Amino acid sequence: MVLVLSLNTKLEPQAIEIAAVGGLNSCVVDVKNIFKHSNLNNAAYVACIHNHPSGDAEPSREDVLLTQKISAAGKILGLPLLDHIIVGEYGYYSFKEQGKLEQVLPDDAA
């Protein structure tokens, strides 16, 4: 399952939506769905969260490519991707914490 968190300019959550639901081993994500609800919610930023049913939170090649697509689309749409978090059985992986996403917040932001 892929969730999209819409945040305002103060980084306050405005809405959380299900963008995609997958099977046991994979989930097909349409990047348009990532931004559809955030756009309707007048979000300033988005964050994506999804789980790995295997329990291993390490990103797959597909996760990395998806994150790159979402980040690029967000720049074009003016809805920057703050983070993409993968949740596993024993932990999580944050693309932001691992330095895999560009800084999108102004220096004086939260």
From TrEMBL:
Keyword Protease found: yes
GO annotation terms (biological process): proteolysis
Entry keyword set: Hydrolase, Metal-binding, Metalloprotease, Protease, Zinc
The keyword Kinase is assigned to this record: no
MF annotations from Gene Ontology: metal ion binding; metallopeptidase activity
Residue ranges occupied by any MPN domain in the UniProt entry: 1-101
Family per record: Belongs to the UPF0758 family.
Entry protein name: RadC-like JAB domain-containing protein
Organism placement in taxonomy: Bacteria, Bacillati, Bacillota, Clostridia, Lachnospirales
